[in-house]
Amino acid sequence: MTTVTMPQLGESVTEGTILAWLKKPGDPVLLDDPLCEIETEKVTAELPSPFEGVMGEILVPEGETVNVGEPLCTVLESAVEAGAPPRAAGATAGGGWSGGPMAIPPDEAPVPAPNGAGAAVPRAAGPVVPRAAGPVVPRPARPAATSPESRERYYSPAVMRLATEHGVDLSAIKGTGVGGRVTRKDVEARLAQGTTVAAPAAAGAPVPRAAGARYDVVQLSATRRTIAENLKRSNLEAPQAWTMVEADVTPLVRLRERDRAEFQRREGVDLTLLPYFAVAVCETLREFPMLNARWEGEELRRYNAVDLGIAVAAETGLVVPVIHDAGDLNLAGMARRIADIVDRARQRKLRIEDIEGGTFTVNNTGSFGSIASKPIVNYPQVGIVTMERVVKRAVVVAGDAIAVRSMVNLCLSFDHRAMDGLEAGGFLAALKQRMETLGA
Amino acid sequence: MAQVTVIEAIRSALDEEMAADDRVFILGEDVEAGGVFRVTEGLAAKYPGRLIDSPLAESSIIGITIGAAHYGLRPVAEIQFADFIHAGFDHMASEASRWCYRTKGDAFLPMVVRTPWGGGVHGGQHHSQSIEAYYTHLPGIKVVAPSFPSDYRSLLKAAIADPNPVLFLEHKRTYRLIKQEAGEPGETVIGRSRVTRKGSDLTIFAYGLMLHESLAAADELAAEGTECTVVDLLTLQPLDVETVLEAAKATGKVLVVHEDTLTGGFGGEIAALIAEHAFEYLDAPIRRVCGPDIPAMPFHHNMESFFMPDRTKIAAAARDLAAY
Predict the structure, then answer these.
(1) How does DSSP classify residue B45?
(2) What is the DSSP letter of B252?
(3) What's the mean pLDDT when you consider all of chain B?
């Protein structure tokens, strides 16, 4: 038997929250089979099984947060160790009972008759009783071999009150009532253990509203708290300046339209404007390396390689995965990497290395329809640039003619401690230049 | 010490009150000879002229009782079986219950109507009824329904001392069945309930014979590891709301037991009270174990058993509730 502990998922990560157990005690597991999902302030990861065997005991309920190194569950070497009879191939249904060969699975244990011996109030049959329904309606009889209907999410007033008063996460309690219902006594037992808090994982999940309350208290997920902390720090520490240019990307739009179908066929990903922009940013950063930098304490480090952060709006919150060595990528490579990393960010499948060490960030705010925005520098980086929505506008072109052009605004926020307007303005002008010449 | 039956407890209360106050007298059918249940046995010899045999006319018994109370006496009427009291209902509902109210508290009606109620003695349709719900619906009539001899004794004394009408219900099955050490202190205040047994899993409310059946069921469940609180209501009107709510809140699971028929029975009032004032403490639907909605208790043993709630039925419901 091996005890699996909370791994360190990232540099300064000290704790993690069990989001969901993916295996039940008694389930067979293969090497690297995911045992559970863990959320830390940085990533959500699946915990792989250390070897092939049988899932043992779950030591930390869902929703609970524990420190790195604390035991989470046990994995048994084999079915023999688990005390279970050898499992016939395919006989997986109903697994999850490790009580020994003779143990009766709980679902098949004799279930007392719904109303016990003789209904408490027998339904009176006969002409003298006109009432359609008997005084006490017996529960529908259930077949002995199946479990009672699940009532794991049926919360009685008493349970709701206790949970609200003490901030108990009910989903983390295994109910002992009928159908797995969480009873008052279950909540009280949990309170007696003193392990109450453990906020539920979903970002923005409101706790039950107290009677008469005019607001809901939003439970902050680890991700949300980290975003809040980082943005606050950035705003408090870095004096941020903002500037914007507009670029005529009419040729680029045409180029993209021309190559899009072929690109899709050849590379297997949709060609958007973002990879063009990302490549242009990387090239421009090489020209203006002052923007490709990070603070490390008092030290400002200028990086040679561009590790480009891409802001992704995932359902669970903003995440900025990093494309390492983005400066080495051509358009196709950039498109593929962006597609991959955005996809994994939205599915919460990012690895630790995917979110660490960015040197500069781009944000495709145009995808929200925005035409101008003021991004906040992704601390400890010193610059962030947005590409706004491409819109057709009537503009004055060479020869004082008015033409319909595809225009885009590029907005830069930068940490004024690290540079002055000279560098920032130069960077933005050069970026504009690149965007305008693409396809021209 | 000697064991006291319910009958002996009631008799001793009557005896003491008659000795202490010569305004107290007893009116009813065959009471001079001791009554059909022998409650008043021996009192006629001790208090000559103060046990008055009435005609077989309950309306007249209660009417005379009201008149005597008006007159300043302390009448204790005996209705031979609770089933017979209906003939006097008009006097109880329209006169007795309102006198204090009608005179804005200027006048009182210090009267007691004692009557044996309930089934379990093969009394059939006319000797087994539960009548409490008719009278708990009359503000102005106090309804007392004890379960233990000591409470019968002390509450009957309190009823006789009370300046307003009291309907004193004596469960006939418990008359000689339930015994207690003599000298046990009983409840002396009308309007108080008592937690007879404490347990954390569920709360049972009962009175009369059903209180004893509930206690037996609680013993049965305790052997299985389920602990019941059992509340002896003692007085149904005015109800001890505080004790009822406290006991309900303590476990969040409530079982109300009475042998009266379910619909419109007193259990509905308990359930409503708890739902109204202790909703946030409820951990399960309130359950009732009551007589079925059948016009009267049948005579045949099997049929009577079918009708009457008992420890087995109570334990089954309690088990179900505990597991909920």
Answers:
(1) H
(2) S
(3) 97
pLDDT attached to residue A168 = 86
> CB A152: neighbour CB atoms within 10 A?
15
Confidence of residue A95 (pLDDT cuts 50, 70, 90): very low
CATH of domain A224-437: 3.30.559.10
The second-level CATH assignment, the architecture, of A2-86 is: Beta Barrel (2.40)
ipTM summary value:
0.81
Residue of chain A whose alpha carbon sits nearest to that of B311: A120
For A237-289, what is each residue's pLDDT tens digit? 899 999 999 999 999 999 999 999 999 999 889 999 999 999 999 999 999 99
| pTM for this model (two decimals) | 0.53
CA distance A246 to A244: 7
Pick from A142, A183, A186 the residue to mutate for testing the B interface (most B CBs within 10 Å): A183
Count CB-CB contacts under 10 A for residue A434.
19
Cβ atoms of residues B72 and B24 within 8 Å:
no
- Enumerate chain B positions whose Cβ falls within 8 A of a Cβ in A: 200-201, 251-252, 262-263, 279-284, 287-295, 306, 309, 312-317, 319-320, 323-324
- Look at the block and give the residue holding tokens 């390492």: A324
pLDDT in tens, A382-403: 999 999 999 999 999 989 999 9
- CA B243 to CA B148: how far, in whole Å? 19
Residues of B taking part in catalysis: 127
What crossing angle do the helices spanning A273-287 and A331-346 adopt, rounded to 10°?
110
Has residue B252 got a pLDDT over 60? Answer: yes
pLDDT reading at A96 higher than 60: no
Task: Say if residues B204 and B231 touch (Cβ distance below 8 Å).
Answer: yes
CB-based contact B252 A129, cutoff 8 Å:
no
Token digits of residue A66: 């524990």
Could you tell me if A185 lies within 8 Å of chain B, comparing CB atoms? yes
Indicate if the pLDDT at residue B245 is higher than 80. Answer: yes
In this predicted structure, the answer to whether residue A358 has a pLDDT above a threshold of 60 is: yes
List the structure tokens of A56: 């043992």
The domain limits of chain A are 2-86, 157-219, 224-437
In chain B, the domains with their CATH numbers are 3-181 (3.40.50.970), 194-323 (3.40.50.920)
Contact A118 B320 (CB under 8 A): no
Question: CB–CB of B317 and A129 under 8 A?
Answer: no
CA B278 to each of CA A317, B266, B284, B286: distance values in angstroms, whole numbers, following the listed order: 41, 18, 12, 11
Strand pairing partners for A45?
A38
What CATH number does the domain located at A157-219 have? 4.10.320.10
pLDDT at A17 over 50: yes
| Whole-number pLDDT of residue A440 | 83
CB–CB of B324 and A181 under 8 A?
A: yes
Scan for tokens 């401690």, then name that residue: A417
Cα gap A85→A91, rounded to integer Å? 11
What is the predicted pLDDT for the residue at A79?
A: 58
Peptide bond into B146 cis (omega under 30): no
A194 touches B: beta carbon within 8 Å: no
Between positions 257 and 286 of A, the ones with CB within 8 A of B are: none
Q: Using the beta-carbon criterion (under 8 Å), do B324 and A178 form an inter-chain contact?
A: yes
pLDDT for B118-127, tens place per residue?
A: 999 999 999 9
Judge whether residue B25 has pLDDT over 70.
yes
